[in-house]
Design goal:
D-amino Acid Aminotransferase, Chain A, domain 2; 2 domains; D-amino Acid Aminotransferase, Chain A, domain 1; binds N-(5'-phosphopyridoxyl)-D-alanine; alpha+beta
Amino acid sequence: MIYLNGKFTPIEEALIPVLDRGFIFGDGVYEVIPVYSRHPFRLQEHLQRLQNSLMSIRLENPHSEDQWRTIIGQVIDLNETDDQSIYLQVTRGVAKRDHAFPVDSVPTVLVTSNPLNPPRDEQLQKGVSAITATDNRWLRCDVKSTALLPNVLLRQLAADAGCVETILLRDGQLTEGSASNVFVVKSGIVLTLAKSNLILPGITYDVVLELVQANGIAHELRSVAKTELDDADEIWITSSSKEILPVTTLDGSPVGKGKPGPVFQRLHELYQSYKAQVMRAPGQ
Ligand code: PDD
């Protein structure tokens, strides 16, 4: 069951007009929110990032935070599995085709749910493979835009190579993955770049940094060169669906010892216990 513009319907029955600007221009933004035991994880942060994305594309938020919470709660209730992946999409609505904003169009609001697919045990135990490629996206990667064609093409390079993710480099420096943030460990120090227009401010990225800080794990927020990726002891990718996933092969060569490292193991445990703790006392 999904929510579309005020109505709850089975997904097969939901229709969007062909002139929706989301379809014509990719003129919209989205969020992906993991739900554990029917509790949305970090909902406030996801709704704040949605607000930031909407502001960046000059589209007024069609709902208050309370309204969003109610709609999301209803979609969760209407779907069977306890662990879900909630997808929100807001577009600039339906209008005659013209690049400039329409006057008085009504935003299209879609909320869907899928069963959540966390990483498989085998992926956590052995790690996954990734490749690198040049980051050829626009310069507003902080906006969670539905216009994902560059990300789609970059991610397909990984799929073609039998890998899980494409790690992106701009001017020889790490930015992020095609659908994830990236962390590197060298000599026990966790490295990742600070938030900027070049990466999506990941909700999982924030959780990882909070856990690193709270547990006194050495870390640095700074740019990371391709040579440091090649020389890394550990590489992880993070996202709402992947949580923290170790990359143990990069461009066909082993990362560090070629298996998930000790700093990953520590963060994985911290992340799982943090999740269990907030799910017992959701209150956000
Ligand atoms: N992707 N960077 C990019 C380009 C992403 O698409 C994502 C998430 C992230 C990680 O953000 P978060 O931790 O908030 O999930 C970073 C989602 C899951 C997606 O598009 O399906």
